[in-house]
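With this grant's support, we have settled on a layout for protein records. A representative record follows, to show the layout.
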Amino acid sequence: MSVPAISVLTSVYNAEAFVGEAIESVLAQDFAGFEFLIVDDRSTDATARIVADHAAADPRIRIVTASAKGRVPALNALVAAARAPWLAIVDGDDVQHSGRLARQMDYLARNPGCGVLGAEVRMVGIDGAPIERPPFTRPLDDAGIRANLEIGAQLSHNACVISRDAMCAVGGYRPAYRHAEDYDLWLRLSEVTTMANLPDRLVDYRIYPDQVSSRHVVEQMRNTAIGWLAHRERVAGRADPTDGFDAMPPLSELDTLFGPGAAAYVRRRVLDRVIYSPEALGGDAWDILIGHIHEDNSRDERLWRTAARLLRAGRPIKAGRVAAGLLGLNPGLAA
């Protein structure tokens, strides 16, 4: 069997409403030299049957089994099974524009030093209709991507083509960075290869309320901030304190791992992301908010408005505890 030019990798879970269209958009690509590997991450709906039906009808599709449930084991199983020198990431609820692979492979042929190539995406709703969002322009060249990496991922994971050699050189996806595994990957890849983005919108990226990124924003942002700290350690020539971890340690251990100020940095990064969400601040981010006020001695003026939002959201006790902490009164109340 000849080696394909590119391996398309899809991990999918409970996407029966979308996965058929997602698969068909890959099979309809203008670029022909690909294999299509799919992991069904132990779905409980009809996803596995839909995937199997498509695999039976098209020999380019190969079903891969992961050793454990979860996105990171699924992605690593796909990488291990891939035969091509290039890996294209495709989400099981997105739609690929017909020229995606051709455009990206053409760029990579003309720019042999590039090891990671992203593209723009078009946001669509659950019905596939475009969603109007404020314009967001990703940096196109390696220098621009690197200059903005601390802010967040400058590549859209579901629109990227990655060198398999570079992926293997950095060890693939890491389980400790759950919900931020792509950001951690970009940081490590930035240390071994160059990266770029195409300005073209080549993927319809589906947005809907029950997405993982919507439900786990606090953990995602916490692991993103820790990922940046680990990146700084590696760039400085020091060991990555999170290397080999299966899960992240509590924030109370970060100063020991990374040095003084690490936990405060992570708390600030999380709060910058969720500061306007009383649901997050009254839930998963509550301990981070209180730690920011008391352990970091923060008097951030925005937090008074946070107390007001908590009050309006029907959380008067927590609103009062935030206000007390900001006034330096009865710190025990805010614990």
Notes: The first strand starts at residue 6 and ends at 12. The CA atoms of residues 177 and 223 lie 6 Å apart. The chain has a mean pLDDT of 90.
